[in-house]
Write a structure and sequence with these properties.
There is one protein chain. By secondary structure, the chain is an alpha/beta fold. It has 30 helices and 18 strands. The longest helix has 21 residues. 49% of the residues are buried. The chain binds nicotinamide-adenine-dinucleotide.
Length: 691
């Protein structure tokens, strides 16, 4: 049974309206409450405008915008959230006001309702005191703009139940959020170092170390960010920076106290003047100080158990859109250097001790090592979560190695009866890391590429042949290597958000981790060619109709489906299936004779003119060498065992990656552009005609 979620948002201001907008866009029913009908209507019209602008820019369609709007009810009646599954409070940042709202919601709402607060500068535990359901009170800290920024810090307090945390995460995921769970502590896991970063920039100015343009430029360079701290404060509001810094100082130490100049600027109600010349000779001193501030504060929060190093970095990358998180930055400058910087600042200022985690890492002299695969056993099923959402969980050597270790651990544990693999955040796994491939090509290290792929193949084959059933949880998009991982699992449980696709031919390469061979086993040569040549997205529903996806369920039913699949009698996933009639035309389009025509730039026959035209167009953008290689490989793989097919894919890797097309395709993909291949169907035909 599909559960119909109902959500509530109280406070229709900047944050509340954006939160409701995102929930509705993702298909959830929302009641948006404010003190008066006028206030609620104002929130709704803000949403309307934001949706209209996004639709005009083509981010989604007009129909989607209208449908989203219909899912929102704006009201001044608190009673309307009575039966909500979760209510997010986003009213003024004031304990009395929030307390009132919470006690009122507690009286009105049903037992099941989770009450969440979007507070930035209050303890969740203090707000929970206003209710008789502290176990169902939690923080959900969104980032501005909440309809666009994917990060949500989920903040349980001491009494929040595990079930509440799980349900809140699920609801976060249902509206497209990437959640990190952090401890109920001042500034949570992002503002704890971000606010000091802003504040320290003002201190540098106040002390006369550098002028604003210098600090802006140095910070942008050091943190690889598009906007410096002063410009950011102009955008997000100087008073918020003062307020947040004062709160951190009150709760943590005087180090965090707002700079005098910051308070003055806030009182003047003026933006910072960003004009003037930057002085490059001051960059070093400015960046050292800002690094020290961020490293020291981030290290302290890890020491205190607020968040781990991975979530601390994720917060920066997803929430603040920094290129690297604090710990990755420490690796970049060197852990010993990082310690020296923090020590220097710590010696000068009180309330800023050197964190143990930095001290001990520097003593070891090795960079911080990050965990990208989480391991958890629930109900005797090992859950392997590829947790690199900032890169859509892309597979690189580290991820594959950690996935292998997690898989080994699950295999060794006699308690574990099944293995589920999933991706954190919005995607399942968006393919193999293109940057890794490119680096291999540029350095001329084709062997590392082959070795990486061989390792991946071996692991995927172990997923496929494991005695303990393996299940891929395809609840988001997958591409290339990610789709290949899903295909290698013994079963796939998907939600409507799931999808598979093979974009490789558009990058001048071929799917090298078993995509061709497994699509071939599932669908036969013709359809395997259709999907791998064209890169067409295979939506979860389609994959289900074709027998690739084992179960198609709602997100909240995923766990039960995994359980069923682990319990089920083993079945040959490649058994013969009847495909719906709609696919026949594609089979015809990719018959041997038609494939010959397609590759020669001729129109396919026996299908509608529309399809023939569309296929001609799609394939004209692909790398021809890749298409021809794939064609030969799929034909040969039809007569080979899985092991032999794998060897065939590995044998061809060096040569495909050595082509100019691969270099052009991968380079363009990394910069988000459409590649220009030297050999495409259109161009080779023109060449033949000339000749
Ligand atoms: N602005 C940010 O960048 C940001 C980021 C994260 C969290 N937050 C937090 O989100 C919360 C809201 O911030 P905002 O910027 O949206 O504020 P806002 O002033 O824009 O909106 C607050 C809204 O709450 C309504 N409200 C006040 N009292 C109410 C009550 N008793 N019942 C119902 N509605 C009530 C107001 O009418 C107003 O519409 C604050 O706790 C803030 O700390 C803000």
């Amino acid at each position: 049974m599909t559960q119909h979620w109902k959500l509530g948002v109280v406070g229709a201001g900047n944050m509340g309206s954006g939160i409701a907008q995102k929930m509705a866009l993702e298909g959830l029913e929302v009641v948006l409450v404010d003190v008066s009908r006028e206030q609620a209507a104002r929130g709704l019209s803000r949403i309307e405008q934001s949706l209209r602008e996004a639709a005009e820019r083509g981010i989604f369609s007009q129909e989607q915008a209208e449908a989203a709007l219909k899912r929102i009810v704006a009201t001044d009646r608190f009673e309307d959230v009575r039966d909500a599954d979760l209510v997010v409070e986003a009213v003024f940042e004031d304990l009395d006001v929030k307390g009132d709202v919470f006690s009122r919601l507690d009286r009105i709402c049903e037992e099941k309702t989770i009450l969440a607060t979007n507070t930035s500068s209050l303890y969740v535990k203090d707000i929970a005191r206003y209710t008789r359901r502290p176990d169902r009170v939690i923080g959900m800290h969104y980032f501005y703009h909440p309809a666009k920024n994917r990060l949500v810090e989920i903040v349980p307090h001491e009494a929040t139940s595990a079930d509440t945390i799980e349900r809140t995460r699920l609801i976060g995921r249902l509206h497209g959020k990437t959640c990190i769970v952090v401890r109920d502590s001042p500034g949570f896991a992002v503002n704890r170092y971000f606010v000091p970063f802003l504040n320290e920039s003002v201190r540098l100015l106040e002390e006369g170390v550098a002028n604003i343009p210098t600090i802006e430029a140095a910070a942008k360079q050091a943190f690889e960010i598009g906007m410096g701290p002063f410009e950011l404060m102009n955008v997000t509001g100087i008073p918020i920076a003062v307020h947040s810094a004062a709160y951190l100082a009150k709760e943590i130490s005087e180090f965090y106290a707002p700079a005098k100049l910051l308070i003055e600027q806030s009182d003047k109600r003026e933006d910072w003047d960003l004009g003037g010349e930057a002085d490059e000779s001051r960059f070093e001193i400015v960046s050292r100080r800002l690094y020290a501030t961020v490293f020291g504060a981030a290290g302290a929060q890890v020491d205190e158990g607020v968040a781990g190093i991975e979530d601390t970095d994720r917060g920066a990358k997803i929430g603040l859109r920094w290129r690297r998180g604090p710990f990755e930055l420490m690796n970049r400058v060197g852990v010993k250097q990082a310690l020296a910087m923090v020590q220097e600042l710590s010696d000068r200022r009180s309330g800023f001790p050197v964190p143990d985690i930095i001290r001990s890492r520097a003593a070891q002299g090795t960079p911080f090592a990050f965990r990208y695969v989480d391991y958890e056993v629930r109900n005797r099923i090992a859950c392997l979560t590829i947790n690199r959402p900032e890169a859509l969980n892309a597979l690189n050597p580290e991820v594959v190695e950690q996935l292998e270790q997690a898989f080994d651990r699950a295999q060794r544990d006699p308690e574990v009866r099944g293995i589920a693999v999933r991706g954190a955040g919005k995607a399942f796994v968006a393919g193999a890391d293109i940057k890794f491939f490119l680096d291999c090509i540029r350095r001329g290290e084709m062997e590392s590429n082959v070795a990486f792929t061989r390792r991946g193949h071996r692991l995927f084959r172990r997923f496929e042949t494991s005695d303990k059933p393996t299940v891929a949880v395809l609840d988001g998009l997958s591409l290339g290597g990610g789709s290949e991982l899903a295909l290698a699992c013994q079963a796939i449980v998907a939600t409507e958000q799931g999808s598979l696709a093979f974009p490789e031919s558009g990058l001048g390469i071929y799917p090298g981790l078993g995509g061709m061979l497994r699509m071939n086993l599932h669908l036969g040569r013709e359809l395997a060619k259709y999907y791998t040549f064209t890169g067409s997205k295979l939506a979860a529903r389609e994959a289900y109709e074709l027998g690739i996806v084992t179960e198609l369920v709602e997100l909240e039913e995923v766990e039960a489906a995994i359980e069923r699949l682990v319990q089920a009698e083993p079945r040959d996933k490649y058994r013969r299936k009847d495909f719906p009639a709609a696919y026949r035309e594609y089979q015809t389009a990719f018959s041997d004779e038609n494939v010959r025509r397609l590759l020669a730039g001729e129109s396919v026959q026996g299908v509608s003119g529309e399809l023939a035209k569309r296929l001609g167009k799609i394939l004209s953008y692909k790398g021809l060498i890749a298409l021809e290689t794939m064609n030969r490989m799929i034909d040969r793989q039809s007569k080979l065992s899985i092991e032999e097919s794998i060897e065939l894919e590995l044998d061809g890797l060096s040569s495909i990656f050595s082509t100019e097309d691969a270099l052009a395709g991968l380079t363009a993909a990394l910069s988000g552009e459409r590649p220009t291949f030297r050999h495409t169907i259109g161009r080779s035909v023109a060449y033949h005609e000339h000749a």
